[in-house]
């Protein structure tokens, strides 16, 4: 009997309507991947679509990158948790107090979702980060923000796979590393700067990879998902 393990792949459902998203999801089953619902789909399809996807048994990463005053973020995290999502995120640059408040709000729940912090967006390179007034290399800023997220009690970070090894060494095996900016060999980089292939990312010790356009804009998305899953499990010893 084949035992299907849960995949380390999170597919970013960056579609503009529920119909498009469901057409994409229909041939999939939960062991194939987890699903990420971000701004575009949430603004167009709302909480109902999230309920539909969780009803199909998928683990949902609600990627709304909350970033506001602590009280507002704590309240919205509690509301979002009512959707029974597996994971949600806040921006670490919202600060320690904001992350404490978000964590405290979710800790009151019987079955809280995982809460992770976005660090430096994977689209940004060192120059773009410095333009915002942060006088550090991206990898150093990610490290700094990860320290704050850990201190606030969060479950992990969204970072690039390029930072994963150092974060793993410093923050341990329990600290989840979720990495967008993943590009299979030969895929278009698009607006992503700090990129890595799925296989290399897993070797660097990440827990989950996030892949959007290389799958969703492909004419053969199922094949790409299967190929990535094969890459993720067949690691050299
Ligand atoms: O929080 C995220 O998911 C996220 C953080 C980040 O630093 N970079 C990043 O690309 N993402 C998201 O990950 C997905 C990447 O999509 P692709 O670039 O199409 O693979 C998008 O939905 C982004 O919104």
From TrEMBL:
Gene3D superfamilies per UniProt: Aldolase class I
Source superkingdom: Eukaryota
InterPro entries in UniProt: Aldolase_TIM (IPR013785), OMPdecase (IPR014732), OMPdecase_AS (IPR018089), OMPdecase_bac (IPR047596), OMPdeCOase_dom (IPR001754), RibuloseP-bd_barrel (IPR011060)
Keywords assigned by UniProt, alphabetized: Decarboxylase, Lyase, Pyrimidine biosynthesis
CDD domains xrefs: OMP_decarboxylase_like (cd04725)
The reaction(s) this protein catalyses: orotidine 5'-phosphate + H(+) = UMP + CO2
Pathway: Pyrimidine metabolism; UMP biosynthesis via de novo pathway; UMP from orotate: step 2/2
SUPFAM superfamilies: Ribulose-phoshate binding barrel
Keyword Lyase listed: yes
EC annotation from Swiss-Prot or TrEMBL: 4.1.1.23
All copies of domain Orotidine 5'-phosphate decarboxylase, residue ranges: 8-228
Pfam families assigned: OMPdecase
Entries under PANTHER family matching the protein: OROTIDINE 5'-PHOSPHATE DECARBOXYLASE
Entry's family note: Belongs to the OMP decarboxylase family.
HAMAP family for the chain: OMPdecase_type1_B
This protein's name: Orotidine 5'-phosphate decarboxylase
Organism listed in the record: Priapulus caudatus
């Amino acid at each position: 009997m084949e035992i299907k393990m849960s995949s380390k792949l999170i597919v970013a459902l960056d579609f503009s309507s529920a119909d498009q998203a469901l057409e994409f999801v229909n041939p999939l089953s939960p062991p194939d991947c987890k699903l990420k619902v971000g701004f575009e789909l949430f603004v167009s399809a709302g909480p109902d679509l999230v309920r539909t996807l969780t009803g199909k048994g998928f683990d949902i990463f609600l990627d709304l990158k909350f970033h506001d005053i602590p009280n507002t973020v704590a309240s919205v995290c509690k509301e979002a948790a009512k959707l029974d999502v597996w994971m949600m995120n806040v921006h670490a640059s919202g600060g320690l107090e904001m992350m404490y408040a978000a964590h405290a709000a979710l800790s009151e729940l019987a079955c809280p979702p995982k809460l992770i912090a976005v660090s430096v967006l994977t689209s940004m390179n060192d120059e773009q980060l410095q333009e915002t007034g942060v006088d550090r290399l991206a990898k150093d800023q990610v490290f700094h923000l990860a320290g704050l997220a850990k201190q606030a009690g969060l479950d992990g970070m969204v970072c690039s796979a390029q930072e994963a090894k150092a974060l793993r060494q410093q923050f341990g095996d329990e600290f989840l590393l979720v990495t967008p900016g993943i590009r299979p060999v030969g895929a278009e980089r698009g607006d992503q700067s700090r990129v890595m292939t799925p296989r290399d990312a897993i070797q660097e010790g990440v827990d989950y990879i996030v892949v959007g356009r290389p799958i969703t804009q492909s004419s053969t998305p199922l094949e790409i998902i299967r190929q990535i899953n094969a890459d993720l499990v067949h690691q050299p010893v």
